[in-house]
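Q: Can someone sanity-check these two? First one:
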Amino acid sequence: MASRPSLQPNPLLTRVSAMRSLPLLLVAATLALSTGAEAKKARRAKRDSDELPFRFRFGLTLDGARDIELSNARKTVADEAVLGGNVGASYVGIERLSLDVDLELAMNLAREEKDPLFDRLQLTPGARFDIIENLYVRAGAPFLLYPSPFNVGVLAGVGYRQSMGGMLGGYFEVAYERYFLKDDNRGESRVVLRGGVEAGN
């Protein structure tokens, strides 16, 4: 009994079938990529909506040096211990840039009996810019509201943030403050150390 000849696939038909399935594969790959991108975008939007664009600060201030004059006429540093408390809020409207306002009340611990207990009440609007992760620079315009006379100046500083997990973190900064109106009794400038806890985005 003669054996039947084996059926061999037609190479031409195989090539035609593969070419027909290619568009379907491209459509499936495009849909998969599009679905993945939409899911990633949705996760990012949910994460951004969960994070409020605000930061809040609670800390202490210490005058490291006061009455600093770099001119040839006077080079002095007042020997005073001035300690205070600071509260502040920041609005992170643009990535790495925040608009701030800080309120500070400081006491003169080395005061004489005739001197007032509180050294100053200061309001400072300004901005902070993150140079790299955790490190930022700060600029502001401090307004001395108490005691009189009223004074205003400029502030420049640098600070460091350290996350404590979640929305909590710590901060430390050094700032130089220079005032426009001369007041021999209270000094014209100071270097201030600030540190505390920061909560928020």
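And here is the second, same format, sequence then tokens:
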Amino acid sequence: MIDSEIVINEKECLPVNRLNKQQIDWFKDATARERDTFLAKGEAGAIELLDADGMMKVYAPAIRGHIIGEPKASFDEARHYAEVRLHPLQIRANLNGEPVDEHALGITGFHGEFVQQAREENLRFKQIIHLGSELAHCNGLLPAHLLETLQSIVGENREQLQEHLPLFLLDEEEEDGHVGQLGFNDSVAKDQAYGFLVCAETPVPQVFNREQAIGDWDYTATWWFYDETIERIWAQARAWCQAYLVRRREVALQV
């Protein structure tokens, strides 16, 4: 395998992310019940550290990035310890019934999870467009770069997006493009479709080896998504990427 190639769907035992600054600050002042509820929604894993001498790697058992015990010699040992501790936490959280609005508090930790998932699944966002801020500054006609992007979305991807955006109004074959753009703006305003339009991409697998797929970022497959939040789009992009790899594998094995 050459340097630029990557294994697309290889599963690794990666350490979990630590709590971010906002989560740490909130955690300090949270009640015991709030902490239980917060941790119970996470996963058991391990955080990689150096031992007291700074010479050897050790692994601290952690739940949702919060260390819950002394470091262990192996990743598996630390993760098992965390898994054993997670179950009673989940039971207590269910009994407590005290919800924590993580979005309002800004402590979801989504972006840390985003990075880890992107790395593991070889998926990234190639382009992010916030339609609300783009359309707020146009007088009926779309900015040239936005119009070009919307017109470039074709095929099945375009058909799916038309559930949210009237892309047919922007067809280059239309005699009066200005009328189409004005109609697009009016339709978006009526539906308040001012969310995010995002292009996701993943390497096209060139070689399948047992359960692995090998490709590189010089040759990628892309797909556009629309939704109100980046979190929802990321979930859709992950599902698309997994389904895409399954289809590519099926085609490759039929040859």
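A (reply): Looked at the second one. Residues 119-254 form one domain. The CA atoms of residues 50 and 57 lie 5 Å apart.
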